Amino acid sequence: MIFNMERETLPREELEALQLNRLQNLCERVYANVPFYRQRFDEAGITPGDIHTLEDIKHLPFTEKQDLRDNYPFGLFAVPKENIVRIHASSGTTGKATVVGYTARDLDSWATLMARSLSAAGITRSDLIHNAYGYGLFTGGLGAHYGAEKLGATVIPMSGGATKRQVHLMHDFGATAITCTPSYALHLYEVGLDEGIDMRNEPLRIGVFGAEPWTDAMREDIEEKMGISAVNVYGLSEVMGPGVSIECAEAKCGMHIFEDHFLPEIIDPVTGEVLKPGETGELVLTTLTKEGVPLIRYRTRDITALDYTPCRCGRTHVRMRRVMGRSDDMLIILGVNVFSSQIESILVETDGLSPHYQIVISRDGTLDSLEVRVEISETLIADGAVRNLQQLESRIQKTIKEYLGVSANVRLVEPRSIQRSEGKAKRVLDLRTQQ
Amino acid sequence: MKVEQISVFLENRTGRLAEITHALSEANINIKALSLADTSDFGILRLILSDCEKGYKVLRDKGFTVGRNMVVAVQMPDAPGGLDSILQVLRESEVNVEYMYVFVPWRKGSATVVCRFDDTDKAVAALRAKNIPLVSQEELSKE
Lengths: 435, 143
Hints:
The complex is a heterodimer of chains A (435) and B (143).
Chain A: H1 5-8, H2 12-33, H3 35-44, H4 65-70, E1 84-89, E2 99-103, H5 104-120, E3 128-131, H6 139-151, E4 154-157, H7 163-173, E5 177-180, H8 182-194, E6 206-209, H9 216-226, E7 229-236, E8 241-247, E9 255-257, E10 262-267, E11 281-287, E12 298-304, E13 306-307, E14 319-320, E15 325-326, E16 330-333, E17 336-339, H10 340-348, E18 353-364, E19 367-376, H11 386-404, E20 408-413, E21 428-430
Parallel strand pairs in A: 3-4, 3-5, 5-6, 6-7, 18-21, 19-20
Antiparallel strand pairs in A: 1-2, 7-8, 8-9, 9-14, 10-11, 11-12, 12-15, 13-14, 16-17, 18-19
Chain B: E1 3-11, H1 16-26, E2 31-38, E3 42-49, H2 52-61, E4 66-77, H3 82-92, E5 97-102, E6 110-117, H4 120-129, H5 137-142
Antiparallel strand pairs in B: 1-3, 1-4, 2-3, 4-6, 5-6
């Protein structure tokens, strides 16, 4: 089902004309109302009047997460404070929180985009949506909530926590759709079994999952276990929240970015150069319609690729691939861009491995060498044969080569031998900088 | 008639093997048979112990990765042709030996070999049909 038939299926040419018009208007607005942008534009020697085509966007400066922090809390707001009707903020685990304000119109656009998203997932106004995204400063809960209402579905504002109770309410109310993180969905499934409720036998039919990285293998697992269709939703609080892009139930192959509201680019995270369609790099988003905190060329740090080929669902909006990693954890090995998260997902999908690994890069003469250390589990050595372990090593090696294009030396190590640190584990050891 | 084997994953690090033997020694567990399979960066130590249950626990408590499975301990005359007589039986029954290693000598005049087969039950049946003596778990802990 397509929620905004006309907008979501606009022919490319018309879509781009709309985007250009909105981009020009956006530049005028931020230049006039946000001192930060006026200064950035001036430094770059560009004025809003210099934007004649969509390609001209490459002359505009990037906005980074740090810029939001530096202007904490309200420095990037483009409208008078009295026009702001809601504020959300990110957790700020690695620095100050990033704060985003929404005007009434922003909230309406967001609800519409989320309604489009739920609709693309196959949800209709007859569905009962169990919304287990957290409500609060985090954008997930309220984002999905207002989208569900805009669609006309029934929404249960569940938020996170009290899992046992959630499972019983899902059963008692007969939830037909669920919105939460994919890992929480699996948790609900398991707690359900403990409580004698098998999701497969429940009316639940659709799940819209996001807010954390997951894989196609995890999708299959969830779909099989819970007997539902699972789609991936993408968003980030700085740009809006969930509903920036969504997979359609028809293809489940890439997430349609709502291009009438967001202008996406893919750049080389190191040089900042714009890459060609289909190439893998960092996603950069420009908010075309946002009033409260409009962003010019916001660097999401998410690594993906854009696919402009037509989709069988009928939407003309570009599809972005499942996020493959964060540009922060990008490593360049023998000239190839590798993300530690990509290696992680390969390991996670391999049976018998613990999720503990370490990537060690060193320089052997003039050549970089990549070693992946993985802790083994007891099931792997049960029958005492060396062959199984060697096969496992070579299988991982082959998969890494296939997916990442680099050769890795995989080394199995004893459990608990990789150093654990408080908080974030030290996943990458780059010895090249120490040699 | 099978006996339990435990397998320990070992990184190639100095002193790792000694930590295992020391742990077993402290727990007063006797090693009846052992073999070490090695690759360039790790090894697997296979053990038949006088008390498998206890050995498994002791090594796990020391933080080793330990697996357990069933193997067959076959007795044969300690004389030319001893091993051959057994392997001929297995060949006729089309059972594959995945790996084997010998016991510390413990019965005068006979030798014992530990075998891991691709089809353990089939191997046991074939050997018994020919009256080839197999060592039981109880015998191991007694002697």
